[in-house]
Write a sequence for this structure.
């Protein structure tokens, strides 16, 4: 298991190299002089043309593409992501403040959708063909087809504006307020995001569970005289869990896209929100750096899914 | 001398399937006795209702199937007396306490019959602890002994391995170990060796034979292979389209078949030593659509002896001697060919 984990983690390195290479290529294709976002804009403004040329040399911008790429990558590794051209703030600071907020929302909605989705999926598989199952299936279909922003706006209208149960949006600073004061802010966005993902998880968990329950070893389990709950949970659910975990891995990009939409709708100060602002302001360096963060996060998460899958399914390790 | 009395007595069992409002009488009135220390082989072509018969005894039928008529009596031989299995709630406590403990089952494909995410040992211990009030350590000790008894080498290591780490034959041995773990009175084996190759098949049969002798277990063996029957059976029941059309001791049924179908089945198997040139006669025609059955004798459309009378109704049971039974009006003609 340890060997497998290390192997999985090491295999991310070439992936990250390829991704950064592409991102850097795209960054160079965007309009504007690279020095304008590589350097602090304030000091840049004070420099003469000759000094700027010197800085270019210092940043290695006059060398060939590969050299420029590695210079950039090296600065990335030191935490230098350049600057946001619209605010002049270092990108790393934007990431530092936004990432915890984004992760908080992502993890909350992932937990909601995973738990709710698997439970509902398994229940509707066990009670296949009953009214309850049909109702859940219809809800699932509706859930998959409603766009997240629409769902979000309706939720705001109902729960924040009409009922005034919860705030419209925003998030309070974790260093200032306690956990429970902050809770009311995350309820709505995480529920909207979580529920909109639940439908997919549910449909998948249901078909995975149905598939498992038709297996011969379920009949074996029954032939042992086990109680139904043991057959369903320990033998059925436990096996159908693997594909559900894999599915959650596949849905991580949706989570990223979702965070852009939901954070914008709810004014949640995460990197998804920063991303949509940056796109509108044509703040290319910031857009690219945030995109890089999203991609790397997805890569990390899918590696984690691989490791978890191997941990819960003994057959996986052999195949690798 | 061990007693060879009846443990399970099935009488006029009818199990029907319902789908799209149509009814498939998959098992249409079968009767047989399973006796301790004896192997009863139920043999017949694919789809004739063998597995459904076994599932009926275990009450492991799918939801679209129902026991319509007849009785399945399990004679416990203890204070519980005779239990009418067909009257028990399918997944009720009573039925579950019989399953695995009194009547255990092994399946055709050991590859898929064991749960892939648990170790073999865990699955056997689960069975023991489900029926008996023993500690984890106790269950593990018994599992180790069972694995050793079933001839699994290296059992100390094997007990903590997953099914995919076992070969097919070893897996079936593990299945048998699980089935035997609570000393069942009856072992139902649904084509236990169809998925295995011939040498492994012989070893598994040997093991089952040994267990039968040692524990006086009653074995209900389901197969479509006449070769298996001749090797294993003490008693034989030949099934066709949901009916037992001939039954008796192995000697009676294999030695002097009275039903045209039995005769044809025996003719269709190769005989070892006769070589390539031998005359194999597959049974002509195909099995009828189970939803659209012949009106009279089910075998009539494919039968060489059929007359007009045969299409009127399914022939009654004719008893020839104490144990031999046949359902054919022309059985006397069949015997003449011997
Ligand atoms: N789950 C099911 N749903 C509907 N019909 C079924 C089901 N299982 C079995 N049947 C029907 O019951 C009849 C008997 O099937 P059964 O599985 O007992 O055959 P079998 O003798 O065991 O054949 P095989 O040698 O292929 O295992 C068949 O006509 C089959 O179509
Ligand atoms: Mg079968």
């Amino acid at each position: 298991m340890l060997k497998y984990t290390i192997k999985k983690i090491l295999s991310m390195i070439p992936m990250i190299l390829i991704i950064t290479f592409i991102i850097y290529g795209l960054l160079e294709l965007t309009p504007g002089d690279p020095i304008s976002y590589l350097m602090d804009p304030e000091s840049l403004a004070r420099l003469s043309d000759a000094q700027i040329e010197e800085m270019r040399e210092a940043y290695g911008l006059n060398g060939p593409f590969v050299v420029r790429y590695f210079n950039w990558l090296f600065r990335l590794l030191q935490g230098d992501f350049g600057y946001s051209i619209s605010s002049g703030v270092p990108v790393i600071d934007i990431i530092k403040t936004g990432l915890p907020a984004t992760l908080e929302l992502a993890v909350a909605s992932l937990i909601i959708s995973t738990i709710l989705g698997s439970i509902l999926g398994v229940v509707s598989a066990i009670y296949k063909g009953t009214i309850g199952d049909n109702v859940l299936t219809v809800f699932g279909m509706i859930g998959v087809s409603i766009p997240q922003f629409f769902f979000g706006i309706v939720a705001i209208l109902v729960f924040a504006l009409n009922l005034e149960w919860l705030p419209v949006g925003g998030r309070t600073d974790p260093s200032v307020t306690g956990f429970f004061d902050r809770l009311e802010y995350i309820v709505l966005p995480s529920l909207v995001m979580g529920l909109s993902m639940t439908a997919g998880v549910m449909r998948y968990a249901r078909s995975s569970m149905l598939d498992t329950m038709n297996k011969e070893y379920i009949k074996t389990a029954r032939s042992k005289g086990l109680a139904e709950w043991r057959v369903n949970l320990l033998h059925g659910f436990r096996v159908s869990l693997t594909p559900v975990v894999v599915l959650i891995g596949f849905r991580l990009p949706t989570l990223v896209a979702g965070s852009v939409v939901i954070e914008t709708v709810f004014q949640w100060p995460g990197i998804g929100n920063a991303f949509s602002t940056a796109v509108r302001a044509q703040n290319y360096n910031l857009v690219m750096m945030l995109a890089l963060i999203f991609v790397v996060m997805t890569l990390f998460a899918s590696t984690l899914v691989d490791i978890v899958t191997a941990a819960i399914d003994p057959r996986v390790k052999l195949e690798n | 001398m061990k007693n060879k009395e009846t443990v399970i007595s099935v009488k006029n069992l009818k199990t029907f399937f319902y789908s799209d409002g149509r009814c498939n009488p998959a098992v249409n009135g079968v009767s047989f006795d399973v006796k301790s220390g004896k192997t009863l082989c139920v043999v017949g072509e694919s789809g004739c209702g063998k597995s459904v018969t076994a599932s009926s005894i275990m009450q492991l039928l799918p939801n679209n199937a129902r026991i319509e008529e007849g009785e399945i009596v399990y004679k416990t031989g203890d204070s519980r007396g005779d239990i009418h299995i067909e009257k028990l709630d399918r997944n009720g406590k009573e039925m579950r306490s019989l399953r695995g403990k009194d009547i255990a089952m092994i399946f055709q494909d050991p590859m898929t019959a064991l749960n892939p995410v648990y170790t073999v040992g865990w699955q056997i211990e689960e069975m023991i602890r489900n029926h008996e009030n023993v500690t984890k350590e106790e269950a593990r000790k018994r599992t180790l002994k069972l694995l050793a008894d079933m001839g699994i080498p290296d059992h100390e290591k094997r007990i903590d391995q997953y099914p995919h780490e076992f070969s097919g034959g070893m897996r079936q041995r593990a299945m048998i170990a699980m089935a035997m773990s609570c000393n069942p009175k009856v072992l139902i084996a649904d084509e236990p060796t169809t998925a295995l190759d011939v040498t492994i098949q012989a070893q598994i049969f040997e093991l089952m034979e040994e267990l039968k002798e040692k524990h006086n277990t009653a074995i209900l063996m389901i197969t479509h292979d006449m070769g298996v029957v001749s090797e294993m059976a003490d008693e034989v029941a030949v099934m066709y389209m949901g009916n037992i059309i001939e039954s008796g001791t192995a000697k009676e049924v294999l030695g002097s078949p009275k039903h045209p179908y039995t005769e044809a089945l025996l003719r269709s198997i190769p005989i070892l030593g006769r070589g390539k040139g031998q005359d194999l006669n597959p049974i002509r025609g195909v099995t009828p659509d189970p939803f659209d059955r012949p009106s009279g004798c089910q075998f009539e459309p494919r039968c060489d002896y059929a007359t007009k009378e045969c299409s009127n109704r399914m022939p009654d049971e004719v008893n020839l001697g104490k144990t031999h039974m046949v359902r054919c009006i022309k059985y006397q003609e069949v015997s003449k060919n011997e």
Remarks:
- The longest strand of chain B covers residues 6-19.
